[in-house]
Amino acid sequence: MKNVITLITLFTALLIINILGFAQSSIVILHTNDTHSQIDPFMSKSSGEVGGVLRRYNYINDVRSKNPHVLLLDAGDFSQGTPFYNFFKGETEITLMNMMGYDVVTLGNHEFDNGSAMLAKQLKKADFKVVCANYNFKNKKLRKIVKPYTIITYDSVKIGIFGLTTDLKGLVSPQTEKELSFLDPVVTAKKIVQILKEKEHCDIIICLSHLGLDQIRKNDVSDKMLAEQVVGIDFIIGGHSHDYLETPLIINNIQIFQTGAKGAFIGKIELKTK
Strand 157-165 vs strand 129-131: parallel, antiparallel, or unpaired? Predict the structure, then answer.
């Protein structure tokens, strides 16, 4: 279903989740990806003026005013693409994401454009959680900030959220490559899902993925491949490939979402537990 609200195109998935032992609850998940420092609105050939942080902020607040439990997520590459990032090195984006009340994000390749040390410096200002499970970071400050997963609980419903980022080889500077160790996304996801299910006892598992919907480079892992090979994920909220999925793609009962790029689109998932 596609709605147009204040020139931001939204697509909504209403899902009924059977979680035994819980009273009926409503949880709304809002998600973005690849906003690429697009602070101002921009012109779309099909829809006229779209996007912009102010529109996003107003819409998010409107949803929050009508729903007690709203989870706001981003699948990476909130950095790079306009002079805001070139001049302020990511501080503007994080300040505005704090203002909008993001809860959890993962990292895209462009978050590393100014190196690990600068990324750690800027993320220290973030009020939101940062998750990325398939990288080991040599930078100690970054290692303290970025965690493999986090858990959000609403009305005793535990939502486990973990992040995956594409292989940064060739996408960042050689120096930045030396500061990171890439781990296989499929192997990592299987381990994290097991932890979230068996140790953390999560009811819903979300992967924030900056892998891309389809394979971009020969050895890349994509969201489709992840869904084919990993059991136990409920939702893959994706990014990197800038795909617009008006309705979720379903593979092995895993629902894959992605919202295009530049903040023109916001995804909305409504969960009803019963």
Answer: unpaired
| Prediction pTM value | 0.90
**Phi/psi of residue 161, each to 5°?**
-125, 125
DSSP 3-state assignment of 40?
Answer: coil
pLDDT of residue 4: 28
Gap between the Cα atoms of 6 and 55, Å rounded:
7
Nearest Cα to 100, choosing from 131, 69, 63, 130? 63
Q: Which residues contact 7 (CB under 8 A, 6 or more apart)?
A: 41, 47, 48, 49, 50, 51, 55
Give the model confidence (pLDDT) of 134-143 as tens digits.
999 999 999 9
User: Nearest 5°: phi and psi at 223?
Assistant: -60, -40
Sketch out the chain's domains with CATH numbers.
2-273 (3.60.21.10)
Least confident range from 13-17, 151-155, 190-194, 249-253: namely: 13-17
Structure tokens belonging to residue 49: 């003026």
